[in-house]
Amino acid sequence: MDATVVGPAAAGPTGSEAPEANRISHPLRPGRWLAAGVTALVLVWLGWTVAINPNLHWDIVADYQFDRVILDGLWVTVQLTVASMVIGVVLGVVVALMQVSDSRILRTGAMAYVWFFRGTPLLVQLIFWFNIALIFPEIGLGVPFGGPKLITWETNTLVTGFVAALLGLSINEGAYMSEIVRAGLRAVDPGQQEAAAALGMSRTKIMKRVVLPQAMRIIVPPTGNQFISMLKTTSLVSVIAGADLLTVAQRLYLTNFEVIALLIVASIWYLVLTTVASAGQYYLERRFSRGFGTTVPGTLRGRIARNLRFSGSAR
Amino acid sequence: MTAPMVRCRALRKSFGRLEVLRGIDLTIERGQVVCVVGPSGSGKSTLLRCLNHLEEPQAGRVYVDGELIGYEERGGRLRPLPDARLRRQRESIGKLFQRFHLFPHRTALENVMEGLVAVKGVRAAEARRRAGELLDRVGLADRAHHYPAQLSGGQQQRVAIARSLAMSPKLMLFDEPTSALDPELVGEVLEVMKDLAASGMTMIVVTHEMGFAREVGDHLVFMDEGLIVEQGPPRDVLAAPRHDRTRAFLSKVL
Ligand SMILES: Nc1ncnc2c1ncn2[C@@H]1O[C@H](COP(=O)(O)OP(=O)(O)OP(=O)(O)O)[C@@H](O)[C@H]1O
Ligand SMILES: [Mg+2]
């Protein structure tokens, strides 16, 4: 902080060529050097022990990293994450709109949903969904409250491990997303709705064209975090045989006993997924902060920002 | 003889116990510019909000261009107007705000296009062309692709005026359009409003700009505590107020 450059040199990349660039002599900071040195040493030592430790079986890690079974599990993890997040976001938007509606019944329903699914552990919910057949052995379409049924299915054939995982993850996610969406809606200036209403816009259009796009700026960053956290949370479904990455890794090490190696294989894939997702989050946040940043179209920064935007944008 | 542009009869509005409008009668002819002045809390903003039914009055009626606003009368009883028809009424009444309320996620051009596209269903290319013309009219053609945050307050208010004009309103309501502006930016907005007045637009302007009221206004209304205390030609009211309350208010703002 004490080395803050003031004046023309702070103006940008060309600043240093300016005729009167400031000359700044940075003071020595022995404490920082020492800390950096220690950190580097620890990192090197950690890397070295990990690399040469014979118990880690890097050769086996390499063998399994692209194993067919592992890749299938990876694919299930990706599918579960994307599907539960999509359903979770849709549920979250619906429930958030219920929470801000004028109808008391809608508000109460939304509140009960959030209360229940945020108030019980996800692990318990997952096991519940997996065993739903114990409560409802059959699922049918027909007249509610004990009326005749048109068609029925065995719950156990309908709710597979994957379906139970999807139900558990997405319904739980919906409860969290609704709180995020609601915070976003609340952050939009009420004057925006008034201005849109004065133009003659319908409530639905005001929501879709004016309020939600602005709320997105608030909603997107925590949703990105939810997505990244979901990538890892899917590993919980290994308890209900969800066939995800961790499940298949476990299945493999139960037969060949290479516990550590297979956990490393899974961890590497989780790291790859979260890293890719973080990059995506960065670009999404850019896309939704339009009009709130300081990027002036026509400048280099503005143009780069526009190039980085997703091409599917409506206008 | 055509109906007046605005006819407001015995309009009453309260929030809970607080009576904000206590029987407003007001008639405004086509093409008139009416300036509304009065102390803070006298109900000026509430009156404007009742005129386009953003606020539902407890009693009284508002007619714009001969049409009852917000209700339909059947067999002597009032029923709330279906949403679509209320929206059509609002569409024909422009509204400007102290804090502009431009859509921050859209550029100046997109702000002006918004009503054309989302309300009138005009195709994008045509909307873009018309919005460009309107921005030109308020002197901001070169700012079309700026976001509101990149514009000065005066420029934002001019974009907001263009956004309203895009709906081809027959009446425009201004709620203190220059109060949030730095003094040096007030002039450019008043200039655009003067042009509008000269083009024959019927305007109701809540303002503290007495110079504008005197120069451009056809009629001045002084409100206090939810009532119209005094009204008349601006020069007369400003030069020789008849009521003590008007005199007290004017002595503070002039
Ligand atoms: N939605 C509301 N709920 C409760 N009270 C309100 C509401 N809107 C306005 N009021 C009250 O009504 C009174 C009149 O408000 P209004 O905004 O119409 O005054 P104004 O003449 O525009 O004042 P100003 O010059 O400060 O803008 C104020 O006392 C205000 O607190
Ligand atoms: Mg006001």
From TrEMBL, chain B:
InterPro entries for the chain: AAA+_ATPase (IPR003593), ABC_ATPase_HisP-typ (IPR030679), ABC_transporter-like_ATP-bd (IPR003439), ABC_transporter-like_CS (IPR017871), MetN_ABC_transporter-like (IPR050086), P-loop_NTPase (IPR027417)
Top-level lineage group: Bacteria
Localization: Cell membrane
CDD domains hit by this protein: ABC_HisP_GlnQ
EC class (word): translocase
Protein's membrane topology: Peripheral membrane protein
GO terms assigned for molecular function: ATP binding; ATP hydrolysis activity; ATPase-coupled polar amino acid-transporter activity
Catalysed reaction equations from the record: a polar amino acid(out) + ATP + H2O = a polar amino acid(in) + ADP + phosphate + H(+)
Annotated family: Belongs to the ABC transporter superfamily.
Name of the protein described by the UniProt record: ABC-type polar-amino-acid transporter
UniProt organism field: Micromonospora sicca
